[in-house]
Amino acid sequence: MRRLFGILLVCCAAAQVLVGLAGAGGASAASATSHTSSSCVHRLLVLSAMPLELDPLLAHAKVESRPVVVNHRPFVDAELGGNHVIMGLTGIGPENAQAATDAAFARFLCSDGSPQISGVVFSGTSGGDYIGDVFVPSAWSDAGAPAVPVSSDMLTVAEQAPAPHLIQSTPLGDPACLCEATSGLLLPITVQHVPTVSFGGTGLTTDPFGGRTLPCVATGNDVFGCTPCREFDRDAADQLQALVGGAPAFLELSFFTGYAQSTAPAGDWVAEDDETAVVAQIAAQHSTPFIGFRAASDGAGDPLHLPGFPSEFFVYRQLAADNAAAAALGFLTQWSSDHPSQ
Prior knowledge:
β4 (68-70) and β5 form a beta hairpin. The chain has one domain (7-338): Rossmann fold (3-Layer(aba) Sandwich). The protein is 28% helix and 22% strand. The chain is α/β, with parallel strands linked by helices. The strands form three sheets. Strands 2, 3, 4, 5, 6, 8, 9, 12 and 15 form a nine-stranded mixed β-sheet that branches. α3 (94-107) packs parallel to α7 (276-285) and α4 crosses α8 (311-338). Residues 1-33, 180-185 and 235-262 have low confidence and may be disordered.
């Protein structure tokens, strides 16, 4: 079961917000107008919550456009795994996930008003049984509504894709978005379980923020940043707002004390996160196929014997994100082979 964000994460978030506030002068608001495509190339919408989750996919992408700001974050057209895609961040938590996904469906339209988005793929970290394992659930639940099944076609393709190369040792990562500047400064940690990919079961999405929006920060950070460390365009990134609404939540005592109480209901969940079920629900509302790839950043197999989440998350987050991305990329490559027109 995924434990909620602890005091360490909250304090880190608060510190990042203060830094973002200090450098927020001159930031421009995101446009709410629709973006239409005259050529109407249908594209898969590839989403992650945090920069560290999208960066491994961006490393394999050929970016084809300048960024379009959606929910205060840059989205770009790209080619990934042989597919035409739109890539972007939702931000952390259900409120961000809903706002970003709703905005993407409203913005990326054909000239006749029909959706440009032909499918949705989510890749990111989660809680799970063993650190590094990748989960591809057949349904997602927020425990407040019936579980939403993923696309049976997408799930079949994911199962038929060649087994991805999953790593067992922590990569360096890029916590301060310094790219290669930190290379070689940290020693890898090898988890005690050889990571695998499992299919089926139900994933759970919880809301540790009590309906509030967790702000992102314009300053570089691989967890709370508004922009991937592999920035689409620095000029555009500099224009992003430092906060994505909800800033007053950090001033309320209940925002901090809420972390002491778990919102996860009892049940047999294969993965637990804070966004996927919301994105699945919105995709279903638009009759658009959806699939999610989540890898455990906290669970069993920690050789350091850390006290669970969030400490394990901060150590193993990039290992998990890289494994989820590897499985997602394998799916995308197989999908383009089976669906060459998409």
